[in-house]
Amino acid sequence: MNTVAPHIVVAIDGPAASGKSSVARELARRLGFVYVNSGAIYRAVTWHMLRKGVEITQSDAVATEVASAELVCDLVNRESRVRIDGLDPSAHLREPAVNACVSSVSSIPLVREKVGAKLRWYANDCDVVVEGRDIGSVVFPAATRKFYVDASPDVRLKRRAAERQHDQIAARDQADASRQTAPLVIARDARVIDTSNLTIDEVVGLILKHVPHRV
Q1: What is the pTM of this model?
Q2: What ranges make up the beta strands (E) of the chain?
Q3: Which of 11, 46, 60, 69 is the most exposed place for a label (fewest CB within 10 A)?
Q4: Distance of CA 113 to the CA centre of its chain
Q5: Is the separation of the CB atoms in 136 and 148 below 8 Å?
Q6: Is the pLDDT higher at 161 or at 60?
């Protein structure tokens, strides 16, 4: 597995509702990089499993289905897009059933392997800002620009509520941090940013101090 990207990779990890998606999208815009949302790909796979009636708790069944599924990633307006078996799942990625099952599906090794390969594909052709939970620790461990964004549980719950999402933040944190494959961790060489009392612009400004356009 090649984990050394030919283009610049800015890795942004963090738990649910930490602000990483908003920060990563704005950072990519300012840098002129491609924005890659790994969570959307995992959600697409989860939606596909639910649509196909695969029993989420049966890891072998999920692995068998993901192995045969056609997962196509491309770009629209310099942002990642995913289609699965020719279908566009974007309207379904935040459905309650997907929210409830995505941690379980994304914990399966073959799922992470397949999605990780797609994430590395983006960096073969473009400078990228990639956000997720294991970007700096597993997907791009050789990246030299790694950030871990976090916020207090209360702030994250309020952010989720503002998005009309009702994830169980504590349960998601526990599931993501305790899975055997690619758990949510702070990469050893990542810069940690607490976004609890910062705006998106302020967080992006902090990151830009460490991310020149080119090296």
Answers
A1: 0.89
A2: 9-13, 34-37, 71-76, 79-84, 128-132, 145-150, 191-194
A3: 60
A4: 14
A5: yes
A6: 60
